[in-house]
Write a structure and sequence with these properties.
two-stranded antiparallel sheet; Rossmann fold; 23% strand; 253 residues; 7-stranded mixed β-sheet; alpha/beta
């Protein structure tokens, strides 16, 4: 464990709880180890398959180019990495959870064939990346940043490892502004998603945490401000379904 700065918070949110920093890291790890093998099936069940549409739209926004070096953080099961690799980019898939990476590595040959060998898999903490500065042309993170303990540190690391002119893209749940839909979605997510998690993955508690973590994540304007504070310019937010999910982006000048 690294020493904390004098004014650095000593606790972090784990769903609706406030827990010690180290405890959050351990508990989030337990959540994703528990759901790893059923993670993609659960995504289909919870979103009615819409997560596939959102991810396709996200990758189109990233515009991966042949031979680019792209870091896909929190990319364990490979959904985003496979899409970008098909466009010829060289992808480093990183995740703090080895169980998630193992699922991705097992899926890769079925999804990419021989091109699966071009992917690099690396266990990494988003807050303390081991990559050299200015190593990547793009940094992507989809449905992962809300689970990071110190989001500001993860954003600073994203900025550090990008080359000048590099781009940052984040796909994350937010709060929809569509009248009426917010109330319906809140009721669905809080009451039904944990039950679906129990039926499909045998794990109600982990999915309850995942829903609670969405509620605790900063709203779109606040998160965009955090991205700017990390040093990114030309920041942009693209709401989807009124902000149920959003694509955040920025550039390293």
């Amino acid at each position: 464990m690294t020493d904390s700065a004098p004014n650095e918070p000593q606790t972090a949110s784990f769903g609706y709880e406030e827990v010690a920093i180290d405890e959050k890291v351990a508990r989030v790890g337990e959540v994703f180890s528990s759901v790893a093998k059923k993670y993609d099936i659960m995504n289909d069940a919870m979103s009615g398959g819409l997560h596939r549409v959102w991810k396709d739209r996200f990758v189109r926004a990233v515009k991966p180019q042949p031979h680019e070096q792209i870091l896909d953080m929190a990319g364990g099961t490979g959904d985003i990495a496979f899409r970008m690799a098909k466009r010829g980019a060289n992808i480093t898939v990183s995740d703090i959870n080895q169980d998630m990476l193992d699922v991705g590595m097992e899926r890769a040959p079925k999804k990419l064939g021989e091109r699966a060998q071009t992917l690099t898999w690396s266990r990494q903490n988003a807050e303390e990346l081991t990559f050299e500065s200015r190593s990547f042309d793009a940094y992507t993170i989809a449905f992962g940043i809300r689970n990071v303990t110190r989001i500001d540190k993860a954003l600073a690391e994203a900025h550090r490892v990008l080359r000048f002119g590099g781009r940052f893209f984040c796909l994350e749940f937010s709060t929809t502004t569509w009248p009426g839909f917010k109330e319906v979605y809140d009721a669905y997510s809080h009451k039904l998603v944990p039950q679906i998690g129990q039926m499909i993955a045998g794990d109600e508690a982990s999915y309850r945490y995942l829903i609670e973590s969405i509620r605790r994540f900063p709203p779109m304007p606040a998160f965009e401000g955090m991205i700017r504070a990390a040093g990114f310019t030309q920041t942009k937010v693209e709401p989807i379904m009124g902000g149920l999910v959003a694509i955040h982006s920025g550039w390293k000048a």
